Each structure stands twice: as structure tokens, then as C-alpha cells.
Amino acid sequence: MNKIPVACTKCASYDPELLSLKVREAIVLAGGFPKSIRKGARVLLKPNILSAREPENAVTTHPEVVRAVIRELKHIGAHITVGDSPAGLHPWDKLWNTTGIGKVCEEEGVQLIPFENQKTIDFSDGKINIKIPVLKELDSFDAIVSIPKLKTHSLTKITGSVKNSYGLVIGYAKSHFHSIYPSPKKMSSFIGRLYGLLKPDFVIMDAVLSMEGDGPNSGMPFRTGLLFASCDGVALDSCACAVYGYKADEILHIKKASELGFGLSDMSMIDKKGEGFEEIGKVQYKRSKADFLFKIPEKLFFIVTMAIKTRPKFDYDKCVKCGICARICSQRAIYKRREIYKLTSSKCILCMCCIESCPHKALALRTRLFF
User: Fold this and answer.
1) Are 156 and 253 in contact (CB under 8 A)?
2) How far apart (Å, rounded) are the C-alpha atoms in residues 78 and 37?
3) What is d(CA 191, CA 254) in angstroms, rounded to the nearest whole number?
4) pLDDT single digits (tens) 308-360
5) What is the 8-class DSSP label of residue 139?
């Protein structure tokens, strides 16, 4: 069996000229675009547009990376559309303008679509059979190029290519599935399984500026100075997680996707290309609290996290009372009383959706005993 190439190039900044060179270098080192991405092909670019946050916060894929990928696809004559489904209900104009994605798409003359229209796909984990609402327009594309952001994640440890495909699920349905899979292990396994139905054709990861600590929305930016690329998102994530000192089998959604044959995580079967790999491991970046949460026995997860008061906590100095957190909560654990939003701990399943969706960093995971 041939090894799968994963490229990792150094990229010190988001300077457009530098990015153009480095994105092209990464694509070439990864073996180039697959046959599905060709002249005349209709290609969906799927960045991470999690929330209405500015690019310097490292919450979303940087718009200049998106621009560089758009130009590479223009060069081969592809027809390009850009889109994503954020966490929570953000006004589309605000989401696109704040993240800078809207400006880039307008300047490059490509279509930017809201993820609103939906179709359903059948999903089964062997025990539960459910229908997943995904972007209806998927049927009209010949290929998907995923452009994830490398970040920590308070539920799944990291977010990259595999997790980015979950953004093809429409709107509030993403938070709803947390009630079906109400723990970090169960949700990670679900995401790994679902990836097989939503696999991209090519992945280019923005790790120029990444996130450490309690990502994907509340962590701190740090300059990694890297770009990754591969036709195998599982293999790419298996390499990129090493930035945080992880091995692929320590990230459950990567491990599950690999076990099911959706990509490779075995390092002996991955051909690492590019000088960027020399930089990985030189600095140990801070992980999220998911490391601790994964140590809790599955059957005791709710009881233990309640006992040590591990729940989202409001920072009322930052809260603007927009209500995005309350609307996304599948358990209706967040409510408004006397003009202040509060959390009912006994209803909370610790899905982190409220933390992910807040555009003002007004919610963070707290526990009295350990952190």
C-alpha cells in the first residue's frame, strides 16, 4: 500500500504574497489536487467560520488563507463557492463581515452562501439510526475542499479536518446531537463515524495562528507558523495533533475515523513532506480541559462533573445579552431572569455549545476543584 503524503510548510504570517507561495507549495508537496478538482469542477470551500470573531482571535480560518486557496482553484479553472454553518444563530452579514470571509469572496468574485437549505442523510452507529440534516447544495458540487483551523477543543481535545466536516450539518442540529451522544467520548465517536459520510476531497489547514487552552472559541491565539495539506483529512489531523503533543490514537474522533477506514492514522503509512515538520515539538502548547474530562468514567460523567461543579460560567462584564447561548442550548439549561442569562447546572450536559457559539467570549468552562 502506498503511503499517503501530508505536507507541512512553514508560513510566518498572513501576508498575501507569502501565503500564495506557501499554499501552492503545500498543495504540490501533498501530491496536488485529486482528479475531482479540475477545470470546470464545481468546488465547495469549507473554512471554519465558527463564530463572528475577528481573524486575530484565531477562532476562524483566516480570510487570507481562504483567498490563497481560491486563487489556486481559479488557476485550474474551477467554479468556486464558499460557505459554513456556524455554532449558534449569527446574522450572516455580521458573521461574514467580522471574520473577513465576506470581503475576500467579494474581492475574488466567488459565491458565498449561507448554510440554510437542507437535505437529510441516513446515519447509523450500529445501535441508533438517525437522519442528519446537511447542506442541500452538497448535491451540486463535484468536490469539497476543507480549510480547517488548528485549535484545541474543550470537548474533543483538538479540532481540525475531521471536526471541520461537522460544520456541514445545518444549524441547531449540531447541538441537538449532543443530547443523543452526551459525553466527550460518545460525541467524539459520533463525529468520527459521521466523517465518513462528509469526507472532503482535499484539506488545507490554517495553522499559521492557532489556538491553545480552552478552544475552540475561548482559548488563546499562538503563532505556530505552519500550513498543512493532504487529500486525507485523517492523516493530516494525525500529524497536526502533534503540535499539542498528542498521538493520533489519543484523539478519539481521529482514531474512530481511522478504524472505520475513512483515512490513515498509522504514522508508518504517512509520508511527511515539508520543512514544517521540523518545527513540531519544539514548543509544548497548552491543551484544553478535555484531557481531564476524558479521564472520567463514562457512566459517572454527569455525576462527577456535577459534583466538582464543572460547568460553563458567565463573565457578565463581557456578556451583551444577545441570547445566542440560550438559543443553541438543546437542553434549555440557559435562561434569562431579570435581564441576566443564567445556567441551570442540573440540566447542562456539558456539550460546550454555548461556549463555542458566544461571539464575546463571555462563557468559559470552570470547575472549583481543579482549574
Assistant:
1) yes
2) 7
3) 9
4) 999 999 999 999 999 999 999 999 999 999 899 999 999 999 999 999 999 99
5) G
Enter the pTM of the model. 0.96
Q: How far apart are CA 115 and CA 107, in angstroms?
A: 21
Give the separation between CA 263 and CA 229, rounded to whole angstroms: 14
Question: Given the C-alpha cell 477545470, which residue does it identify?
Answer: 39
- Structural domains in the chain, CATH included, are 4-278 (3.40.50.11440), 290-366 (3.30.70.20)
Residue with cell 435581564: 339
Chain mean position to CA 289: 17
Residue corresponding to grid cell 503511503: 3
Alpha carbons 355 and 22: distance in angstroms, whole number: 33
CA distances from 57 to 42, 175, 301 (A): 31, 23, 31
Cell reading at 368: 472549583
Q: Which three cell numbers stand for residue 276?
A: 514544517
